[in-house]
Each structure stands twice: as structure tokens, then as C-alpha cells.
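Revision sheet: C-alpha cells.
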Amino acid sequence: MLSNQDLSLSLIVILTVTTVGQAAPPISRVVNGTDSSVLKYPFVCHGSECGDPTRQNANDISLLMVEEPFEFDGVSVAPVELPALASAVPQSDAGVEGVLIGWGLNDTYGSVQDTLQEVSLKIYSDAECTSRHNGQTDPKYHICGGVDEGGKGQCSGDSGGPLIYNGQQVGIVSWSMKPCTVAPYPGVYCKVSQYVDWIKSNQAISA
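Predicted:
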């Protein structure tokens, strides 16, 4: 769920990946804590190239709208901030620490979790992200998160989940190599900072 300091929204926006938006039924229910809300619109994706498989799912981003705003208590249910338009993650050889949140499998052949999970991950520089994936990622659209030794990160069922850095959602779970969390390939996320203007302009569809 997004917080937008520049726009006053009548509806709450859920940021996800295109594959999640396309798979959602016409009427879905989103639950947060003990509160829930019905999706008003299926999804809005990024133009004709959303989730482009010819470019490793470039533009893998969608907006989902809910009919009634969620009730935020600031503790168990709270919105997340958008990153700045500029690169939101410092470009460091050592990487920086982020947090992945999700309900996905606990390993490739594991089970979906009943309790929301979180794990601290290294967010790699654009250069190392591209290098570890042998040139298959594009720093304009992608950001990578994982651990050098493998064993921690996203898995099936985490798609659309947030990667958080410094209180901002900098990534959305997009794709990864299998088996899950295998070294030396970190998980690949949609780079949210690339789409801030698009997100803000498309929130108007809720009117």
C-alpha cells in the first residue's frame, strides 16, 4: 500500500507486479490485519510493454485499487513511502541492507506461510546486479536483492511483494533464478524509482 505525500487520495493504491494484476479475478478481497477491502478495478499496468518478457520483465509494475480505504493504525497496518525520483539506493560495492516482506514459499519445494515473513537482504549495486545475472538485467528497470552465499530471499508466492530500504519501497518482487535463493543470483525486483511519475499520474484513475 502506498503513501503519497503529493496527492490526496480517496482510494488506496496497492503496488504490485503485472503478473499479479493479470491473475487477479474481477472481484478480489485484500486483507490487512483484521480489516479488508474489495478491489475496485482489476489493474493498471505500464503501457503496452508491461511485464515485457523479451526484456526480462521490464516494466513489471501494476496498480491495484481498493474500493474503501484501509484503516491505518501506524503499527500493524501502515502505508509505505515512494522513493525519490533519483536513484533511491546508494551505489556501493558493499551494497546496502534492505528488507523483503512476503507470504511466499519458505524454499523451492516448501509451503506458503501463514504468518507474514520478513528477511534482511543485501541490495546490490546496479553494476553487480547486472554482473551476477550475466547481463540479463537492465539497471533502468531492475534492482537486485539477496545474500552472497544464497539461502535467503524471494520464492514462489512472493511476487508483487515489497523490498524496503530506508522506509521507502524501492523494489517489487519480479523474478528469480530457480531453485529459490540459489547463489550467486540475487532476486530481481522492479525498480520503483523509475516509475514514480507514472504511479502518481495513474492514481487519478480512482476518481
